[in-house]
Design a protein that fits this description.
Oligomer: single chain
Shape: globular
Radius of gyration: 24 Å
Largest sheet: 8 strands, mixed
Number of strands: 27
Distance between the termini: 10 Å
């Protein structure tokens, strides 16, 4: 039997209910956009996978509405160390406990716990519906500008028509295939064994990530929870060694106490990026768009950045009449950043393994020398929230160095209550000013449906005023994702030449009307 659902019920179909897909659904829901999330598994995958997020992603989880709950299950990490084959420290890349986004720059956690938080939040949103245990079989545009998604469950085939489809369906993405995208190989592919374990042993660790730079046995190690640990080892072709032999360097000598292997599995770490991330209203996010080796802990982070970047733009097009060209900026902004982090992870992989060619020994000696250069480790230990490339929504220039960067998030005073900056600014655009806003800035803010906010009104610890001074800015226009779109340089009267980005944010085309709010039970497809 084939069952169809009316297009107005499903403005957005999201394929995949992992952290990226559910985050995208929640961010869209905050902006009034309904979605249906299709997931082939019935339950959250119970075993650990991703283990690390940075402060920018903690800020995204705050925007999703699970920031406090996540804080209860995460713990700060010290950063990254490079060890030689004898486990002697070659370099330390320290991460701050309080990063510019208002959170530790490294947080350790177990992915199943995060996924359950996100699923619980999804269940509380009437704008979202999750269909589990279904298989998407086809994604295709129709003649009316909508996208038809076909999925199958135990009752047969079903069709959904959507204004947009977000493919969060992983490395083997059907969505990627449907838009004709192919992988660009960034030249890294290695087979590794991953071991997750629980033990009461006094495991030797520094409360951060250790990367063992040994060409014979490169490894990664970290403590994840109170008694849970992750090891990753590259083994030679055909090599099989007992887990206890592999982890022995981290355990007390002759330890024979409790040691439970929660998971032991083989992964092929790859570095790839899709040649296109969009066709029409079908988009790729997360592992469907990019794959990275795990050596700098940015795999999940990149996917959540994708969701945050796209969600406000898509909502503006669907709900507020934003120009369709606004959606072009998703790939143009996110792809260079994802590529940069993949290359950084590959470089870390080469630092660990040295490669297998004739220059491997030379590279390892060069690495040891570079790790002793003063200031170098501090540079590599900085924020991975890199500035976005200049474009229609990033007016970067010599007098606008803050454009494309993130506004920091200090604690502020809101009606006598201490809270984080984003809780005060909300999900909208904001004009942030160093002094009382001029009439022209006030008028611009009014045109965007927001107000101009002087930093003195926020009563923070001076972070925002210092940030504006360092960036030689009298005012900045913050996007909903807290990226600086445009800058009023120090001494200037107002923003100049705003027609380019203003045309993207506003259009004379009427947005598609939103469907009325209905109970979730009415969203389910029913046989005619």
């Amino acid at each position: 039997m084939t069952v169809e659902k009316h297009p107005s019920d499903t403005p957005v179909v999201i394929i995949g209910a992992g952290p990226v897909g559910v985050t995208a659904a929640l961010l869209l829901a905050r902006r009034g956009v309904r979605s249906v999330v299709l997931e082939r598994h019935q339950e959250v995958y119970p075993l650990p996978r991703a283990l690390v997020v940075d402060d920018e992603v903690r800020r995204i989880l705050q925007a999703v509405g699970v920031g406090e709950e996540f804080a209860a299950l995460a713990r700060p990490g010290n950063g990254l160390r490079l060890l030689d084959a004898r486990h002697r420290v070659m370099a330390e890349f320290r991460r701050a406990e309080h990063g510019p986004h208002g959170y530790p720059q490294t947080s350790m956690f177990e992915q199943p716990a995060l996924e359950r938080l996100l699923r619980d939040a999804l269940a509380r949103r009437p704008e979202c519906e999750l269909l589990s245990g279904v298989e998407v079989t086809r994604i295709a545009p129709d003649s009316e500008g909508l996208v038809r998604v076909t999925y199958r469950d135990e009752t047969g085939d079903h069709h959904l028509w959507a204004d947009a489809v977000l493919g969060c369906d992983g490395a083997n993405s059907l969505t990627r295939e449907s838009i004709g995208a192919v992988w660009e190989d960034l030249r890294f592919e290695e087979r590794w064994t991953v071991v997750d374990a629980r033990t009461t042993a006094d495991v030797r660790c520094w409360e951060g990530v250790d990367q063992v730079c040994d060409p014979d046995r490169p490894a990664t190690f970290m403590r994840v929870g109170e008694d849970s640990y992750r090891w990753e080892f590259r083994l030679r072709e055909g090599e099989e060694l007992p887990v206890r032999e592999l982890v022995a360097p981290w355990l007390p000598p002759s330890y024979d106490g409790h040691f439970e292997v929660v998971r032991e599995t083989a992964y092929t770490f790859r570095a790839r990026i899709a040649d296109r991330w969009r066709r029409g209203r079908v988009f790729l996010l997360g592992d469907a768009a990019h794959l990275t080796p795990p050596f700098i802990g940015q795999g999940l982070c990149a996917g959540l950045r994708d969701a945050y970047n796209l969600s406000w733009k898509l909502a503006r097009v669907l709900r507020q009449g934003g120009d369709e060209r606004l959606l072009d900026t998703y790939e143009s902004e996110r792809k260079p950043h994802a590529r940069h982090l993949i290359r950084l992870a590959v470089a870390m992989g080469w630092a660990m393994t040295g490669g297998q060619d004739g220059a491997a020994a030379l590279r390892r000696r060069a690495l040891a020398v570079l790790c002793r250069v003063p200031g170098l480790t501090g540079a590599f230990g900085g924020s991975l929230s890199l500035p976005l490339t200049p474009g229609p929504l990033v007016r970067r220039g010599a007098r606008r160095p803050l454009a494309g960067t993130h506004c920091p998030q200090p604690w502020v005073d809101a009606d006598g209550r201490r809270t984080r900056l984003d809780e005060v600014l909300g999900d909208a655009f904001t004009v942030l000013t160093a002094a009382e806003p001029s009439p022209s800035l006030t008028a611009l803010a009014h045109g965007l449906g927001v107000r101009a906010v002087p930093v003195a009104e926020l009563r923070d610890d001076g972070t925002l005023a210092a940030w504006l001074r360092a960036g030689r800015a009298d005012a900045v226009l913050l996007r909903p994702d807290r990226v600086v779109l445009d800058v009023v340089p120090a001494g200037a009267a107002a923003f100049t030449d705003t027609t380019g980005w203003a045309a993207l944010l506003h259009t004379t085309r009427s947005p598609r009307p939103s469907p009325p709010t209905v109970e979730k039970s009415l969203l389910r497809s029913a046989a005619p």
